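User: I'm preparing a small set of examples for a lab meeting where we compare how different chains pack in three dimensions. I only have the primary sequence for this one, and I'd like the structure in token form so I can line it up with the others. Please keep the answer compact; I'll paste it straight into my notes.
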Amino acid sequence: MQSHEVDYELLGDDMQMVLVELDPHEAVIAEAGSMNYMEEGISFEARMGDGSQPDQGMFGKVMSLGKRALTGESLFLTHFTNQGHGKSRVAFAAPYPGKIIPVNLGQIGGEIMCQKDAFLCAAMGTKVGIAFTKRFGAGFFGGEGFILQRLQGDGMAFMHAGGTVIEQRLEGQTLRVDTGCLVGFTPGVDYSIERAGNLKSMFLGGEGLFLATLKGHGTVWLQSLPFSRLADRILANAPSSGGRSTGEGSVLGSVWRMVDGS
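Assistant: Understood. Below is the structure token output for the 262-residue chain.
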């Protein structure tokens, strides 16, 4: 199925939204809960599957549901369709601070592999599936799970990532990356997991036990602040017991906790 041709505009800087413009009868699919606002004429419906194979039957839909369950994502995708007579727009926002990455799948070989929580939305006709990493060890030690999402099609797809995003082009060289900082990569890039140095470096270096190794020919997208790292830091600095906290990282905060008993 050929993807719908949608226009878009990125809004904002560190907490971005993508504004997708739809012609009459054009549609876009998105992760549940990612819609920010929509203009008159847009209708939406939660459906099983991405709609790229409308004749796949009940068995195919059940298989698609099973695959999405393995990624930990919602079992349904939301379909937004322009039912009006003129152009209309719908906006989607990332769930945490960072950047939205627009990718024209038709210009990069029709496919991209990304972390399971990186997909935000895509033009109707894009196939949202899963892919197992080629090396079994990557699943157990990669830190981001054994399963990656595979986006296939010839239209626009949008990923989101935390912090600053950089695009790295590989021309046969090798890139070693913290597993949480990897957002996605194009066909031609081989993904594996390697031990992070010797035992001393692994346990005392603070960089985790394993690193993702990427090599080959293609494009890699990296993020500076994975959500898992942000969440870990928040939990580490949260009060150990109930009650309020003021100025967690400051001297005044420590004094307040001593006086307040929280």
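A couple of notes for your slides: The first strand starts at residue 7 and ends at 11. Confidence is low (pLDDT under 50) at residues 136-145, 245-253.

User: Perfect, thanks.
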